[in-house]
Amino acid sequence: MQTQTHPLIAPSLGTARSLTSFHYGLAGGQKIYIQSSLHADELPGMLVSWALRRKLAALETAGKLRGEVVIVPVPNPIGLNQHLLGHLMGRFETGTAQNFNRNFHDLAALVLPDIEGRLTGDIDANRTAIRAAMREALDAQQPATELASQRLALQKLSYDADVVLDLHCDWEAAMHLYTNPDLWPEVEPLARYLDAKASLLALNSVGNPFDEIHSFCWSDLRGRFGERFPIPNGSVSVTIELRGQREVSYEYAEHDAQAIVEYLTSRGVIDGEPAPLPPLEFAATPLAGTEPLVAPISGVLVYRCEVGTWVDAGHEIADIVDPLTDRVVTIKNSVAGVLYARHLTRFATAGLEFARIAGATPFRSGSLLSN
């Protein structure tokens, strides 16, 4: 194992932060990149990374790694240092209000000016050429802020990975994941090992989140040049939502780390026989088919069903109780699917998006993610 340190731009006098990456195995085979808690207040991923590092160290000692696995347990030291009145605030950068998981460099846009002349009829050579163009373009970037330097450092570590796993969580949620529909055949085994209750597919949900900037580039280039040049899925990128913010336990971390080990074994990155594939309880669905439920009034939020359960259309999902007027409004869903996530708060303001249902039929467009 090798440890690397990646300094960030110092935001003010007397301060300095850096990223730390841990590299297991050897370059030459598949490269796997895994980071956790890019939203710094989403802590289950950090514990999964810790458990996974212990497993990878043992596998490396046993000579069972057939590729390189890069782990970045703390990809957002900026967010980890943002506290207000005892509360960690790690989703948005307080100086700019920018979401830490948005606005990464669009790799397709970076390589488009000169990639066409490098493409040939050889799919493997095209993968190499595109990655070389990515590296050159990222090296040419000149970040001006600490946040920009953090984003760039993460992209330089991950742009050439065959698999990118971005470990997040929701407020309260069942295990679920997001990925590109072009990649679903390669991601489905991971969803099975993780026991994902929802698998949400989108080519471009808008906003350049971390996992999408890796896979969308290849889909975009294939759409532009695929009729003339063979272009592979050069990065199998997935956002894994490790249940809810409070679901931090050794038991969950062990389960999730082992699920990732089984997936990497099934891909040949780890030498051995992977565990049999478990069943997938619910089929993958389009992110555009997800129904956000919004509170029409303010009041106490009382949930009437649990995350991870199937709800038919018209199910009573939650009540909003106004203790001043005795008014009770019951919110029902209009699409059938899995209730995969809900808000942590129990007080609703009017207009609050408090839950999401994974429906099978796309009906939304534009920005598909929460802020």
Quick synopsis:
The chain is an alpha+beta fold.
Structure description:
The strands form 5 sheets. Strands 1-2-4-3-9-13-11-12-14 form a 9-stranded mixed beta sheet, with helices on both faces. Strands 10, 15, 17, 20 and 22 form a 5-stranded antiparallel beta sheet that branches. The longest helix has 18 residues, at 44-61. The model has no long low-confidence stretch (mean pLDDT 97). The protein has 371 residues and is of the alpha+beta class. Helix content is 28%, strand content 27%. The protein starts with a strand and ends in a 13-residue tail after the last strand. Helix 6 links the parallel strand 11 (176-179) and strand 12 (198-201). It has 2 domains: 2-266, Zn peptidases (Aminopeptidase), CATH 3.40.630; 287-358, RNA polymerase II/Efflux pump adaptor protein, barrel-sandwich hybrid domain (OB fold (Dihydrolipoamide Acetyltransferase, E2P), Beta Barrel), CATH 2.40.50. The protein contains 8 helices and 22 strands. The protein has helices at residues 44-61, 77-80, 107-115, 123-139, 146-158, 184-194, 210-225, 250-266, and strands spanning 2-7, 18-25, 31-36, 68-72, 83-84, 87-88, 92-93, 98-99, 163-170, 172-173, 176-179, 198-201, 236-244, 285-286, 290-294, 299-303, 309-311, 316-321, 328-332, 337-342, 347-348, 353-358.
